[in-house]
């Protein structure tokens, strides 16, 4: 028998096109509305976690990007460990009942957890989503849990709401559920990563600073004070979820783009409707919206769709055939690159030109797969 047990996995980032904003239960991370996201390729954005269980470890320890963190200070990490241990312990009992005499009591061992992102943490790039998804998935692999990905998503959800969606590749819905215990608030896959290969995401990193107001606090203010949120969760999102699922299944970019932009706008509108108001967009974000609008006005169909999370960074979805053109425009207006070519019909002066470095980094990526088990550990 080995002295220790170890697994290493990776998990992707997801970017919502129907936003989660509002908790009906803060400790269980139960949302006030369902949401839907696109999982992005792990080639560019990925969390990686190694977990080792060893009977000789005197306590459970955690390193994030090489720096040790206090596990006992994070209730959310504790909850994920507790839940995964509970499932492992049930599994151990079942193995024993089935007559398996060599069951390793992994549920009782302390853990050493190392986790890294290959992109800036907390920069509005959903690092908590990929981080918690990776953590829960790795623990489930270490424990050989027989549970489905949707069942595991219930655990990841308790780490960070949006993390539940990073357990799947492709297009993923987080169904809000109706139960008070959260047992039906989980992620389900709408379509896999091969479904719509023409879809491209352009991530415009406007700021890599940590966001001013974290999502948990922001959501609490919105739930308490915004009357617009009530309209959003009761009247808007349920219908929008259905329309978005259809748009994705039909690969209907026109419908997908309009729903995506409208939903991002409404999320930021409920932030502004909170009291005190919450602002995540800045002048550069708003100019990116302007650029996408002007670009869309050059055609009778939508060619691009912007979306923003709790920060100023933009994610622009487009189709492969338009991606080079759009990259050229972003470089011209926000990255200080002089380009001769602008698309016909695009009014050059309709968008303000910002100084070089306004968009610090432009990441071009595609729809990607879900968590993976890998060999080389941290
Ligand atoms: O999972 P959290 O608590 O980081 O909240 C994420 C909220 C948004 O990114 C703004 C929207 C979403 O659905 O991902």
Descriptive account of the structure:
It catalyses: (R)-5-diphosphomevalonate + ATP = isopentenyl diphosphate + ADP + phosphate + CO2. GO terms for molecular function: ATP binding; diphosphomevalonate decarboxylase activity. Its EC number is 4.1.1.33. It is an enzyme of class 4 (lyase). Pathway: Isoprenoid biosynthesis; isopentenyl diphosphate biosynthesis via mevalonate pathway; isopentenyl diphosphate from (R)-mevalonate: step 3/3. The structure is a single chain. The protein has 378 residues and is of the alpha+beta class. The chain folds into 2 domains: 189 residues, Ribosomal Protein S5, domain 2 (2-Layer Sandwich); 168 residues, Alpha-Beta Plaits (2-Layer Sandwich). It has 8 helices and 16 strands. The protein has a 6-stranded mixed sheet with strand order 8-7-9-6-1-16. Strands 2-5-10-11 form a 4-stranded antiparallel sheet. Strands 13-14-12-15 form a 4-stranded antiparallel sheet. The protein is globular, with a radius of gyration of 21 Å. The protein starts with a strand and ends with a strand. The mean pLDDT is 95. The structure holds (3R)-3-hydroxy-3-methyl-5-(phosphonooxy)pentanoic acid (PMV).
